[in-house]
Amino acid sequence: MIIVGVDGSRAGLEAAGWAAAEAALRGSPLTVAHAVPKWVCEEDTVRYAEVARWMREGADTVLAAARDRALRESQQVPVEAVLLPGDPRTALIKASEEAELLVVGSSGIGGVRGLLVGSVAYGVAAHTRTNVVLVHERPSLTRGEIVAGTDGSPSAGRALEFAFTEAELRGARLRAVQAWAWPQAGGFPPADRGSEQDTLHRLKESLTEHRERHPGVEVVEEVVHGHPVEVLREAAAGADLLVVGSRGHGQLAGMLLGSISQALLHHTPSPIAVVRG
């Protein structure tokens, strides 16, 4: 099952469309979910009965619009609409515990102009243990390519497997990208051809097992001298999907979302998947 959280925003409808297309590729059912305060769903609400009824009607409208958007994307996908009680972040995380994938719009109603990721989207991405996709907008013209960011960490390995699977489902090319020089106090170190070749060799080695499991996927390996956020943001422009791990090298053990993943959520307008362990 794939679950998509919607809130009536344009980004939420884009997420519903993306999730329906993904469900069709996977042969999975789709659940469209919208959260309201818990008291709205309680039958014994008397004092605010009219307000609760009005909010439930609004929620039904949001769910109906998202369900219609999903069905326009794919008539073959079974779509269920559910109303979740509670804070949207907590409710979506709980509802997605048994799901294959959680999809949300990256910015919702009430978002600050210029901020790609809203508080609900960021909260879900930072705390869920389900693989999550944030959809800002779907490129009108895609290039049939999945971009995967890697740094050789175990988290990056899981992201690569997810990316290979996505590329295989879509018949798309996979571009595996690694930034091979990190900034230091005095700026970036000078590009070094030997270092670049060593990094490329390690990248190709890290892809070997994935290639064997997905022999039909065309793969392009790329190492770029630059900051990982800028490198991946540029590589993902126009891509079907950018895939990253939740944490890479050098992250604190207690952090569910690493600094590179966090920055990409805020600066990458293409759909982005954050892959968990």
- CA-to-CA gap between the ends? 18 Å
Cα Rg: 20 Å
Seen as an oligomer or otherwise, the chain set is: single chain
Helical proportion, percent range: 40-55%
Protein traits:
single chain; 277 residues; alpha/beta; ten-stranded mixed β-sheet; 8 helices
Please outline the helices and strands.
Layout: E1 2-5, H1 10-26, E2 30-36, H2 49-73, E3 79-85, H3 88-95, E4 101-105, H4 119-127, E5 132-135, E6 145-149, H5 154-170, E7 173-179, H6 193-213, E8 219-224, H7 228-235, E9 241-245, H8 259-267, E10 272-275
Parallel strand pairs: 1-2, 1-4, 2-3, 4-5, 6-7, 6-9, 7-8, 9-10
Antiparallel strand pairs: 5-10
Question: What this model shows, in words?
Answer:
About 6% of the residues have low confidence. This protein starts with a strand and ends with a strand. The protein is built from eight helices and ten strands. A ten-stranded mixed β-sheet has the order 3-2-1-4-5-10-9-6-7-8, with helices on both faces. Strand 4, helix 4 and strand 5 form a beta-alpha-beta unit. The relative contact order is 0.15. The chain is elongated, with a radius of gyration of 20 Å. Helix 5 crosses helix 6. By secondary structure, the chain is α/β, with parallel strands linked by helices.
Task: Provide a concise account of the structure shown.
This protein has 277 residues and is of the alpha/beta class. Helices cover 41% and strands 19% of the residues.
